[in-house]
User: Which sequence fits this backbone?
């Protein structure tokens, strides 16, 4: 969670000897203490290297420019992509929702209880139903009715651009255009109500019932142009039996959805998720 | 498990009032005590009704003809399909295997320990590799090399027809023809190394790795002409992370496969699985 | 869930031949259709027998007296305890809470969404903190400050006696006297924040951290004089690692607590839980 | 698993700035590539620090003395405990067993399949029953009948001292004396057939049945003088119901035991387990 004078350094580059030592050396030289360090190489030899380092540095704000300059030097040498995140700056999040409230409420509730390190700056919906519930948490609720797609997305982009660091689709039952996803300027996390890649597409619970599966799942993933194909962040399942109707499967699944989405948003908020091709590394 | 003078009565019919009373009445009239009774209706109104009743009746063998005559009468009245299974007659099982031994060994081992109420009467393989391991359990091992498909299946049918009550495909890496499945004259249980319907088909672990899923699963199902589409008996999953290679996923998955297959075979052996369309009811 | 003209019949007696047939016969004779029937015998021979039968009977209210008379006749013959619950009469529930809101909110929220078939008729607390949150659901909140134990319990009994069918202790951090539990006149469900019987008593999360356990659990049970020894209704666990602090274990555990308590209350509401000595049978 | 020219470096010391950099610097200076690095600090400030680093170094055997000298220098500066493990040297393991074979067979079987990176150099038992099964794996079986405790332990120590790196109690139903555990000269892993600290002591399944728990567990831990109090390495549970007898709970539990023990032994074999007081850190 957010702590004063604490930052998270993410790096990604082709695997090669000396990366850990070089980065740790720069941090030590600036007096930064390593609180935790996690890394992952995709292959024993010749793969991609990822590292997340949480550091503590007294007077972080003042020391940051010099530290960044040194990191940049190392990054250039190793061909790294990198980013440094001050933990005291919480991510600004917009939540998109339609009529189902369970995922939305779980996020608002956890934030209120101090369990989720984000700022929910707005909730956007194509239905007015949840206005009162959302405003009860002190969060703005903006109703943009479905209609002309282009006009609708234009209004949404006005709200989002420059104002948010993350968009969460909390069972938002509208399809987003590729163009829209690209122009938001922030990552988008979606919750899909099945264990992907099983039951890609619509009505997964009805299809799960028909197919007689013994486990019901949910998948949180980054939204991409191809909606159900984005990199998976988290998944979970719960056991069901033949005696449960499609409606009961939906109710059981809703409990999985809200926990899976909450974990995915939390990990993203803590800069623990790195996208690697079609998959993710969770550090 | 098998008990003297104990039988399992399975019935299936369209749901209608009075079924439970009629069946229980017949059983009481013949002096049979109900040890357990499980039933399931697919809908509150107008669906399909399934019931599994375990009964104890002193002198079952002698009393059976009269009991069956009475059951037949009730069954005709309600339009029931039914079957009565003496628990002292264990199902005769043939296991088909290729080179992977983990599912095979799990079944042989559980049977030897008295945890699995079946008689494994033969193991059939297209490879000779596992002959010694199988014969060490006192079970015949028959090697039928892959080659001309028709000739191979003809030899297999000679072995199976009339000799087995169940065929288990314990990671048997050969495709069975529709005709073969129909002519065996016994149900066939297959273990698929994924959480169906995700990753239908070949190489599910490689595809799971590529897709970055967070859970690895296995599915035991009845084999039908459309191999990965048969009614699902049991499924389970285990959690994995980005740090596991495709080979490690395979190893983790193998542990799930053997437990899922063992449970499915056990439930089938106890007459607990009823097929209903594309799904199953487990009573 | 509640349905018109639907009732649940619970029976318990010493196991003996003919019970199922006798009960099913009475139901059939009154025109009641069996929607579902679950039974359990504690031993193959000579144990205790439990049965839960859900029935549909047109004009239940009018037909009930005659049906009950017939059931009473059978019950006397077999020495049965029995009860008949009209599903349209939802149980009236009082929730006791202190300052932790997660279990309380889960119950109120599920009830509001139609997922929990109870009427929460009051929330009683020794702290005023949660008044606004509770009243936002349209539920009365009564603040009875801790103080003289006898006076406090006397006020609580005034509220409860005759007014509730169930009391739920949703992390209520006060000890109840034996006398109080007896005089409430309704069952009491408590949620304990550990996998009982591990970590009986106070501060289970701190002790779990110290002991280095790898799973954190929660237990919902009926409260008895010996608080953590009552019959267990439901338990579950979640995996944790050495990297989580005692505070994080508490947060992780809170997610388990609310799901476990919600399931236990739901099963009780559906008359699915029968107490048998120190344990329960869930039908 | 074991790889040529690969080693695992474990360190533990009081937390302080610069540890990661110092260690990474030494490794880089000797040309060792970091394959993976995991670390853990018990507290944000002033706790204990643990790190496991897997390195690859061409010509490890020849380079090792110089590398160790440099590590020793850093270790002295930071007050570190440390050890360097060549992955090509597999741990020599003795398995102690009585009559239950499920945990023993699981270990032998996994080793044979190449899933468990250990050398089982002997199986020691107080019963002769499993001799043939063990020798079938090409592993020596030594039968030391129970009798005079001191004489029995003396014979066992003769076998173990200097010959093994790990002792695994795979459901060994004899109590070990404190003196014996101390004199073995190798760590001892025990599998306890319950979710510790619930049901410490004998007959946990019977007591679990009596108590009506809804989950059955197993715990693998290092054996200490106080047998069921040693540091926990791994735990897991499986869901059970009222309908399962104590014997069935035992059978269900056996499946959990063998998986939990196999995971614990594997993690120990990979030098991933560090004892910290009464608990463990798994890196």
Assistant:
């Amino acid at each position: 969670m957010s702590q004063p004078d604490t930052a998270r350094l993410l790096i990604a580059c082709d695997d090669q000897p000396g990366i850990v030592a070089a980065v740790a050396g720069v941090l030590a030289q600036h007096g930064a203490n390593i609180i935790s360090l996690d890394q992952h190489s995709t292959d024993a030899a010749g793969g991609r290297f990822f590292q997340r380092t949480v550091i503590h540095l007294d007077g972080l704000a003042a020391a940051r420019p010099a530290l960044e300059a040194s990191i940049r030097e190392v990054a250039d040498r190793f061909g790294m992509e990198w980013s440094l995140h001050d933990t005291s700056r919480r991510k600004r999040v917009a939540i998109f929702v339609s009529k189902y409230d369970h995922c939305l409420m779980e996020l608002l509730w956890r934030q209120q209880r101090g369990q989720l390190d984000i700022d929910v700056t707005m909730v956007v919906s194509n239905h007015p139903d949840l206005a009162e519930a959302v405003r009860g948490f002190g969060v703005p609720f903006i109703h943009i009715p479905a209609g002309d797609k282009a006009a609708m997305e234009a209004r949404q982009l006005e709200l989002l651009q420059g104002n948010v660091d993350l968009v969460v689709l909390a069972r938002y039952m509208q399809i987003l255009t590729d163009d829209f996803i690209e122009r938001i300027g922030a990552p988008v996390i979606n919750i899909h109500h099945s264990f992907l890649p099983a039951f890609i597409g619509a009505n997964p619970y009805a299809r799960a019932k028909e197919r007689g599966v013994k486990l019901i799942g949910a998948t949180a993933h980054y939204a991409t142009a191809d909606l159900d194909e984005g990199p998976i962040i988290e998944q979970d399942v719960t056991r069901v039996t033949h005696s449960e109707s499609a409606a009961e499967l939906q109710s059981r699944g809703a409990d999985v959805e809200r926990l899976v989405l909450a974990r995915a948003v939390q990990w993203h908020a803590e800069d623990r998720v790195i996208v690697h091709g079609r998959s993710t590394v969770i550090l």
Observations:
- The mean pLDDT of chain B is 92.
- Chain B touches chain D through eleven residues (CB under 8 Å).
